[in-house]
Amino acid sequence: MSAARSPSAPPAARQGAGPGRPKDLGKREAILTAARLLFLEQGYNGTSMDGIAAAAGVSKLTVYSHFGDKEALFNAAVQATCNQLVPETLFVADTSAPLREQLLGIGRAFFALVSSDAALATQRIMLSASTEDHIRRLFWQAGPARMTAALGSALAPRVASGELQIDDLELAAGQFFCLIKGELHSSMMCGLTSPVCAEVAERHVASSVDMFIRAYARPVRP
């Protein structure tokens, strides 16, 4: 990837469409789809707004109108990829629902995300020496950091109700995702392990969830 930064958006594009003017959701989705594919194939610096516009079948002005600049589009593309496999509805706080079932749902979705070919390829790009630090920060804030914050918010009511005993929600949420990734993810990142079968993935996720609950469940007093 080249070291060149993204071109600045035209002033009018930065301002977006006029107030109250609806955006074309079909074009927005086409732009996001094209951006996700090109960022994956060509890296951040290798992807141009012209290329995204051409792949989406829209004008470059339309791309800028929807997303403002390339950094905002990259952020939206990472968020869209995460939300596709790990929807925000999984993190809805509901203390009336079983904790284990909610964590299993989050764990299954997250493991499917991080073990997908697209996610593995993206993470390898982020680890590449040619990827600039500000691109890594963009990726981290749009993906891992947002998901950690979402889980922390989902765990907070469980702490308030006394179901869990957690002093640092952000730390605990990060530990949960590290458990779910486990050694399997590291092995896949190194190309030593192919995507595992559903049975192995389920066993891995379930054991990780159970370990997390054992670590943070409020002790039952006799």
TrEMBL record:
Residues 1-25 are annotated as: Disordered. Residues 48-67 bind DNA. GO terms for molecular function: DNA-binding transcription factor activity; transcription cis-regulatory region binding. Residues 1-16 have a biased composition (Low complexity). The keyword Nucleotide-binding does not apply. Residues 25-85 form the HTH tetR-type domain. InterPro entries: Homeodomain-like_sf, HTH-type_TetR-like_transc_reg, HTH_TetR, Tet_transcr_reg_TetR-rel_C_sf, TetR_C_Proteobacteria. Keywords: DNA-binding, Transcription, Transcription regulation. Pfam families: TetR_C_7, TetR_N. This is TetR family transcriptional regulator.
